[in-house]
Amino acid sequence: MEPTKPRFSYSEILNIAYNLRIILGKGRSGTVYHGLIDRTRVAVKLLSELSTPQAFQQFQTEARYCNDKTHMGLVYEFMFNGNLTARLSDKANVLTWEGRLQIAIDAAQGLQYLHQSCTPPIIHGDVKSANILLNETFQAKISDYGISRNFSADNGFAGTPGYLAPECAVNLDEPQSLNEKTDVYSFGIVLLEIITGQPVYSNTTEKIHIKEWVDSMLPEKGIESIVDPGLEGGFNINSVKKVVDIAMACGSTDPMQRPEMSKVVVDLTKCLETQLNPTKQSRNETELGNSIEIIV
């Protein structure tokens, strides 16, 4: 039997969250506060009004919650290292390439679980670096799944500009256009952020989209021209090349050309192996080359 999920009264939530004095963040779906349960740090999210019965049902499947008809909230593990957007923009504490790959794998595994292990499958609908949270050991977890897209003011699609798949960007009021492949596209954009350390839109007056920028740089200047300079060469170029290939496949304008998240997980894991064991990768490629010569 599945254990009963803890429920809290609103007064208990106020006590846990220091009377809502410490705000960790605000979003479309609600406000997140810092809290404490039995000396364990937690995040308390008080939700905006849920717009549909399906949204309420999804809310009830979350870990620990409060529902007194007037106030609804969720209690989560406190994510000590914030979100991926903030970490990538922190030029004083640059994430290593190995660390970035592990974060990408963690997030990809989360999406794979939502798409393939949940019944019915859960479409996140708002995959972005700000929704990838990092705990004390930098393990990545995806937040706001199944809830964020229920908070559009007109009950339409509530994704984030810059991460929207092209087919969604022209059908903002048709939630039925959401599917696994729209999440995959958004994840591809996140991978480009991880590779480049750049925001989704440039800080210039032109506001160039990251995919457009990468597309313009690769043909003439190559892979190294788009890699986050903060990495200072601390990466295996073959590993980076493969992640770029994965990102571009995920970000294809044709949904049918985008891979499933299960393949993304496998391919990213191989990229991490290449980073950790470059000599093994080189040896395998040499052996493959020798085999081809023998066959010929």
From TrEMBL:
Under the heading InterPro entries, the entry gives: Kinase-like_dom_sf, Prot_kinase_dom, Protein_kinase_ATP_BS, Ser-Thr/Tyr_kinase_cat_dom, Ser/Thr_kinase_AS
**Which amino acid positions bind ATP, per UniProt?**
45
Q: What is this protein called?
A: Putative leucine-rich repeat receptor-like serine/threonine-protein kinase
Q: Tell me where in this chain the Protein kinase domain is found.
A: 18-272
The record, for Gene3D superfamilies, names: Phosphorylase Kinase, domain 1 (3.30.200.20), Transferase(Phosphotransferase) domain 1 (1.10.510.10)
Record key words, sorted: ATP-binding, Kinase, Nucleotide-binding, Receptor, Serine/threonine-protein kinase, Transferase
Originating species: Prunus yedoensis var. nudiflora
Q: What family is this?
A: Belongs to the protein kinase superfamily.
Q: Which domain of life is it from?
A: Eukaryota
A GO molecular function annotation here is: ATP binding
* Pfam families in alphabetical order: PK_Tyr_Ser-Thr (PF07714)
